[in-house]
Amino acid sequence: MIPLSEPTFGGNEAVYLEQCLVGGYVSSVGPFVDSFERQFAAWVGSHHAVACASGTAALHVALQIAGAAPGRLVAVSDFTFIASVNAVHYTGADLLLVDSEPRTWNMNTELLRDRVVRRAARGHRLPDLVEIVHVLGHPADIEPLLELRERFGIRIIEDAAESLGASWHDGRLAGTVGDLACFSFNGNKIITTGSGGMITTNDATYAARAKHLTTQAKVPASSYLHDEVGYNYRLSNLSAALGIAQLEQLADRIGRKRQIALRYAEQLEGLPLTLPPHATWANPTYWLYSVLLDEAAPENVVARLSSAKVEARRVWRPVHLQPPYATAERLLGSVAEAIHARGLSLPSSSHLTAEQQRRVSAELGSALAVQN
Ligand SMILES: *Cc1c(COP(=O)(O)O)cnc(C)c1O
Which residues are recorded with the post-translational modification N6-(pyridoxal phosphate)lysine (predicted)? Predict the structure, then answer.
């Protein structure tokens, strides 16, 4: 079976893990967490980074720090992995789901901006925050959100879980323009710590508060004084050791993902499908290479590929079609539905070989020929 997306271990993972074992630092104490945070911040170009137990935990805390709470309204992408909205739900804030735009599949930020301006003119409720998800390795069109922040003080949280290393053409990386940004190191992401996440921010106060909340809100140098309700969201030293080894390979991973994308673009030419988004102003990483099928039902193609020992997967069902969020307020949703109806993700592990990739493309060609 050629898997959809598997972790790649090709560097100092075993060396650093062994150092944890030998030193006895496997849990909440040890040198790797600080070091991972510093190196990560430097890599993405952010002043501060705070390691977390998962991407979801990172989002929960970042949202809370930015003011998400009962009575507040958070605008979020409708087309995303469920964790993006679950994290909002944990804070007790209300949701405003915003449809995708066809160019990048990301949140239609122009639609949101226009609606907010109109609502403001009428004195209607505005979002307090926007959580923008950079989906599948492609950065979102952020400019309209910068305008909203400027005019209405709407804070920006970036969910960059899938887009570590993706950038805009001016060189800024996804995860460096929001008030706070979150990353994930789950096993299927471009680098992994087993499970883990990171919050980045340029604001020292936010960073200190993120560290405080993720470590049970214990007042430093106190004997068990906790000044608010915190969380056990810290990353273990073991995971951080893995993270440092993975970070050393990140540039190479991104190069491989882009190479895979180039090869797919060549091999899939002429098939009845649309290649993944690539806006002129963006440098995507193609974290999970995903196409839109012209005619064929993705469900059937997934099944055919599976019997040919190739793992493919449909893209997310929009949040507004998920039972817990069916009644959430939303702006449109038909683009997200169309992407779900036609989208298909193909094997994209960074160690995918050229030979394997030829097989995937050939099997997809046969599957689509049968379909049509
Ligand atoms: C993976 C992911 C998350 C959650 O990360 P975990 O580390 O699995 O908790 C959040 N948002 C998006 C868009 C993701 O893909």
Answer: 189
